[in-house]
Q: What sequence folds into this?
């Protein structure tokens, strides 16, 4: 494909004044509508109003993100060779990481969307299975090449390809979920994470089935624990709960989630690890915490890991208020010297904003915090320096007095 034949998308003058040309997302209000309609999935060149070249990407007239940028070298063509090179680069990083750690993980993120220069696709591997979660039309077009690469480079029994209904509707694509390679496992897939056995139901789990991004944080938080009682709020499959019981010597773990399936998974993981101290509660986290405060309950450790609360800028204010309320409640439940593990997975809420919210919540209820660590996602979830939203996970570990 010759560069001269690639359609051009022009930034409007207002956007051009503040766009540095590096962020991989170009929203609809930032561009001049093309003079003639372009096909969804067309490769395009993004240019400034004066015609100077910025980057190359893929166009989608149905998406709020009108253009996803993938190449900042005009000689780079978004073809199969380019795609294969990005996948190889992602795989090499994981191999280097595990070599540096002198370990091997059965479950890890193989491709991390913007963090690996492939905006719109994540791949998580769970032993002999891979789950491919696509969220952009741009990457949907490469699905056959992606599956072929997985089969050639990795020994897999099965590949689950998923395009969730929420993302599919935003991208003008039909939702899709199918085992495109092999047969689905007969039951949960079991793997080991830092000595903790984890069973994951790939088809029914959230996202790709399990939150691998918190792997290192679960272990690190457990190492700060000194036994006692642990409250795990929004526990999902009980990752923090199991780490607390196995590594943190917890004597009692109370796991709370609004999802019945999540609590069943947590209980299954407790049985796998012969953990007898787990008690589960199905409840709304706000209601449960409010009742605990009213009943003057106390815990030695509280883990708070709620779902994403801000998907776009307009939701940031509401998200910050919700984080403030949740943290105000859980801090009141901590005994003096108790451990707080407070998390946010909202990329639109910055690390500084979130730490500020946690500190303000403590001040508001008359408690002080010693911040011990501020952490992010594990190393198989790299962050792209041009896309700060890709640093979505924040984990504050602190002592409350």
A:
């Amino acid at each position: 494909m010759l560069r001269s034949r690639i359609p051009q998308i022009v930034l409007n003058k207002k956007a051009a004044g503040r766009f540095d040309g590096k962020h991989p997302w170009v929203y609809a209000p930032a561009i001049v509508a093309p003079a003639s309609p372009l096909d969804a999935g067309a490769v395009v060149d993004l240019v400034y109003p004066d015609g100077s070249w910025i980057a190359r990407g893929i166009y989608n007239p149905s998406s709020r993100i009108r253009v996803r940028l993938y190449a900042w070298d005009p000689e780079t063509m978004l073809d199969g060779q380019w795609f294969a090179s990005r996948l190889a680069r992602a795989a090499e990083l994981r191999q280097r990481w595990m070599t540096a750690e002198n370990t091997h993980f059965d479950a890890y993120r193989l491709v991390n969307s913007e963090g690996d220069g492939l905006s719109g696709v994540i791949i998580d591997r769970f032993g002999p299975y891979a789950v491919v979660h696509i969220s952009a039309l741009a990457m949907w077009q490469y699905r056959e090449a992606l599956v072929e690469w997985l089969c050639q480079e990795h020994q897999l029994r099965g590949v689950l390809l998923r395009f969730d209904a929420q993302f599919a509707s935003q991208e003008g694509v039909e939702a899709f979920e199918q085992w495109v390679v092999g047969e689905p496992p007969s039951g949960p897939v079991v793997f080991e994470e830092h000595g903790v056995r984890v069973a994951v139901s790939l088809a029914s789990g959230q996202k790709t089935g399990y939150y691998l991004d918190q792997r290192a944080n679960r272990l690190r938080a457990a190492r700060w624990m000194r036994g006692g009682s642990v409250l795990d709020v929004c526990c999902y499959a009980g990752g923090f709960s199991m780490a607390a019981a196995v590594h943190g010597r917890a004597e009692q773990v109370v796991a709370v989630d609004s999802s019945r399936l999540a609590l069943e998974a947590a209980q299954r993981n407790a049985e796998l690890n012969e953990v007898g101290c787990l008690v589960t509660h199905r409840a709304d986290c706000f209601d449960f915490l409010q009742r605990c405060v009213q009943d003057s309950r106390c815990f030695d450790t509280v883990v708070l890991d709620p779902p994403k609360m801000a998907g776009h800028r307009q939701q940031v204010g509401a998200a910050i208020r919700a984080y403030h309320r949740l943290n105000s409640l859980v801090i009141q439940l901590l005994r003096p010297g108790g451990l707080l593990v407070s998390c946010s997975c909202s990329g639109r809420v910055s690390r500084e904003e979130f730490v500020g919210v946690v500190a303000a919540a403590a001040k508001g209820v008359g408690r002080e915090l010693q911040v011990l660590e501020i952490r992010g996602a594990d190393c198989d979830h790299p962050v792209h320096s041009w896309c700060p939203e890709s640093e979505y996970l924040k984990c504050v570990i602190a002592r409350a007095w």
In short: The mean pLDDT is 95. The chain is about 30% helix and 30% strand. The first strand starts at residue 8 and ends at 11.
